[in-house]
Design brief:
With 783 residues, the protein is of the alpha+beta class. It is globular and about 85 Å long. The structure holds S-adenosylmethionine.
Length: 783
């Protein structure tokens, strides 16, 4: 039996993670010496059985054992503990203001680790060791030691508190075959200041970098709350409890929303698409009842398991179906479908359900696609300018046909005839018709524009608009390689321009002419001399203009924009010596004053950049006397709305899906905060826009409340639809983010109420809380 197959026979869920972790512990060239079993439920006996089986089949070394560390289990490779090594510790005790490193042997930790090491190596001929951990030992340090992190955290706190909250961390991840083998973090400040630590980490990384199969990823993070071992389920329960205990703990509130967001939001919209569900149900019913001798049913990409349930329901009445396999590669979805499938009472006695994870088929999801996926009708002046043509047809019952398309071997040449005269073409919109059952030809799901389907369309944008004449033919070639649709067209070709690939948020910002003009105008009103300008906007456009015009001496901007800024600078004959590139994490170490600071405390999906809001005090410290900091003020506004569209994007509303009790599981992932909205949101406004509160540009707690008159009391309140008013400087007009402009770079957000609120009175009370730069409102009845 093969390695993977053995692991799978023990663990249906998470087997891939378990397999790759055990493999890495077993391999002598991999520095990882221990794997903490934190990806599901297990027990000592199962782990011992598993290791025995792997050893009998000579698939792992004899030196691999199970170790119990308090309530947790580790798989360890004894061989990797023979050599005694020295360690560097970082003190993260909850009582400290910030993490600090301290010398070796402080607090006798080295001694503690040596006791542990000796216990491990003395168990050479056993399969299991229950490590004796004295009360004074710090368990996370031992965990780090067993895993073999290059630097170990230590804390001296009875309540397990640490001081890593809101600390900028440098994270190193070791990845192999898309699985994260090790995730290790170190506070940026400590890393930057300590040569010994840098050397130790780079020596540790070198082990991985010298083998091609490992990928080393580095990034920065600043998490409001750090849990030393990542466990989503526990974290969700923990944050839920924290929110319940203290509704003002908005860090916990935000973390809870983030954890829930790990499940893709479109599942809600899809499960609420009743006509889609019905079409699938009909086709499944038809084939299970009428198909000749169907024994196995396979639901590939089962999501919540809805289609498997449809199949199970039909199969239980006089059919030959024996097995229904639900296959899903997203762990969260697989967990949801495992729960919903096993708790519904529709299973037949002689039927078993099994979960297979086809990890090797993760080809489509993480790719940057050459098109935008969106509802094309959201573009206000959208119209079709050519006749519609059928492009490619894939027969899902014919492997050869699927493979041909998947390999990109078939390229379909199409001719689109213009139906407009002297009008522009801006791009191509692609949708599909799904013929679910050739025996019921009318059972079709179409995702064409304005069809009301949950599917978005694929929108391929042209680099520049092209004028069309009546009956003009536009030629395109359509193909689909590795599941990604591609359109080649001759319209883009005749251009001398050199393309540079830019993050789409930067592009949106640079296209928002109105906002850029306001920014430039605000700066132009400031007559004092500017030497240093810090421009942390989405892109330092204004800073670049000022530098080009010689109105500033030095522009400080983000390191991540360095290449693009330098490219633009060279085309505009701006000297490279005029720039300094820095990270946000460096601002409290800067020893310089700025006469102009431009910030953009909003994220691309419309919510406040709470980290930037919290850091405003730090930016103010960098402001020179008489200097200008933009923006001066941000105010939050809202409208109460009724929107079925919004509700159906956030939680299960479809009666049939509810009847199957799927809502019980998936609604646990319903979030209150809905991002990435704009003025086109389908909704009924129940109030005029009202001012909620000025955003305090700090990390403190602020609370207020207000009463809002309703102009429509017939409909339940579903959500508060937010926007902001930005005062760039005291001397300029306010700028609102709910402009009608088609090129606005500002998105809107909504906070959806937990349950719909039906009001008898004429007003409602809204309470506003801001904490750690995060905002939240509660809507209450006034009577
Ligand atoms: C469009 S959803 C359909 C969910 C479900 N069948 C339904 O109709 O409600 C597709 C699901 O397929 C999963 N998926 C995508 N690619 C997969 C692959 N290669 N192997 C297994 N599951 C995959 C996704 O995680 C997602 O949950």
């Amino acid at each position: 039996m093969e390695f993977d197959a053995i692991i799978r026979s023990f663990y249906k869920k998470h087997w891939q993670i378990i397999a790759s972790q055990i493999r890495s512990v077993n391999e002598i060239q991999c520095p990882k010496r221990g794997f903490l079993f934190d990806c599901g439920v297990t027990n000592k006996e199962t782990l011992i059985d598993l290791l025995t089986k792997l050893k009998v089949n000579k698939l792992i070394s004899k030196q691999i054992i199970v170790a119990a560390v308090k309530e947790d289990f580790f798989i360890l490779n004894i061989e990797k503990f023979y050599q005694k090594d020295s360690h560097i510790f970082v003190d993260v005790s909850g009582s400290l203001e910030k993490p600090g490193n301290f010398k070796l042997n402080d607090f006798n930790i080295e001694k503690h680790l040596e006791v542990i090491r000796k216990q491990i190596i003395s168990f050479e001929n056993d399969l299991f060791v229950d490590l004796e951990i004295s009360e004074e030992y710090c368990v996370p340090t031992i965990f780090g030691y067993l895993i073999n992190y290059p630097v170990l955290y230590y804390y001296n706190d009875e309540n397990d508190r640490n001081c890593l909250s809101l600390v900028d961390l440098k994270v190193f991840q070791i990845i192999r075959d898309d699985e994260i083998l090790i995730s290790f973090s170190i506070p940026c400040e400590i890393f930057d200041q300590n040569k010994e630590i840098q050397e130790k980490i780079s020596f540790w990384l070198h082990h991985f970098q010298s083998h091609d199969e490992f990928e080393v990823k580095q990034f920065f993070t600043n998490n409001p709350i750090i849990i030393l071992h990542e466990r989503d389920e526990e974290a969700r329960a923990f944050f839920e409890q924290a929110c319940e205990n203290d509704h003002r703990n908005l860090r916990a509130y935000q973390n809870l929303q983030n954890i829930k967001n790990k499940m893709a939001r479109w599942h809600f919209k899809m499960l609420n698409d009743s006509s889609r569900n019905l079409s699938f149900k009909r086709a499944i019913q038809y084939w299970i009842k009428n198909g000749d001798g169907i024994i196995d049913v396979m639901d590939i990409g089962s999501g919540t398991g809805l289609l498997s349930m449809y199949a199970t329901n039909v199969a239980k009445v006089k059919t030959k179906v024996k097995n229904i396999y639900a296959i899903e590669f997203s762990q969260i979805m697989a967990d949801i479908s495992a729960e919903s499938l096993s708790t519904t009472e529709i299973l037949m006695n002689d039927m078993f359900l099994e979960y297979l994870f086809l990890g090797n088929l993760r080809l489509i999801s993480k790719r940057d696609e050459p098109y935008d996926a969106d509802y094309v009708e959201k573009i206000s002046d959208f119209k079709l300018v050519t006749k519609t043509v059928e492009t490619i047809e894939v027969n899902f019952n014919n492997l050869e046909s699927m493979e041909k398309y998947f390999n990109g071997k078939i390229i379909k040449e199409c001719q689109l005839e213009s139906e407009v005269n002297n009008d522009y073409i801006d791009g191509f919109v692609v949708w599909f018709s799904l013929y679910l059952n050739e025996m019921e030809p009318e059972n079709i799901i179409s995702t064409k524009p304005k069809s009301g389907s949950c599917w978005t369309q694929a929108i391929f944008k042209l680099k520049q608009r092209v004028l069309l004449q009546m009956y003009q033919i536009v030629k395109i070639s359509v193909s689909c390689k590795e599941g990604v649709l591609k359109i080649d067209r001759d319209l883009d070709i005749n251009s001398d321009l050199v393309d540079i690939e830019v993050d789409s948020n930067i592009l949106k910002f640079l296209n928002d002419e109105e906002y850029l003009q306001e920014l430039e105008f605000s700066v132009s009103k400031h007559k004092s001399k500017i030497i240093n300008c810090l421009d942390f906007s989405v892109f330092p456009y204004v800073g670049l203009v000022l530098l080009k015009e010689g109105r500033i001496e030095k522009l400080w901007c983000r390191k991540k924009d360095e290449l693009l800024v330098k490219e633009i600078a060279s085309r505009n004959v701006i000297k490279e010596s005029g720039f300094e590139f820095i990270d946000e994490s460096m601002i409290d170490r800067l020893n310089i004053k700025f006469e102009l600071i431009i910030l953009h405390p909003f994220l691309s999906l419309g919510d406040l950049d709470n980290q930037m809001v919290c850091n405003f005090a730090k930016y103010r410290k960098l402001q020179a006397d008489g200097g200008l900091l933009i923006p001066n003020k941000v105010t939050l506004f809202g409208e109460l709305i009724n929107s079925d569209w919004l509700i159906s994007s956030c939680r299960i509303t479809d009666a049939d899906v509810k009847r199957l009790k799927i809502d019980k599981f998936i609604n646990q992932f319903a979030t209150e905060v809905h991002l990435d909205l704009d003025n086109s949101l389908e909704c009924e406004k129940l109030t005029s826009a009202f001012k909620i509160s000025e955003i305090s540009l700090d990390d403190e707690l602020h609370e207020s409340s207000l009463e809002v008159p309703l102009r429509n009391t017939n409909l339940p309140i579903h959500a508060i639809f937010y926007h902001h008013k930005i005062q760039l400087t005291r001397a300029t007009n306010d700028f609102v983010t709910n402009r009608k402009s088609k090129t606005s770079c500002f998105k809107r957000t909504a906070q959806v109420l937990n349950s719909e609120l039906i009001i008898d009175g004429a007003t409602v009370k809204i309470s506003f809380t801001q904490n750690f730069g995060i905002v939240k409102c509660d809507v209450l009845t006034t009577c």
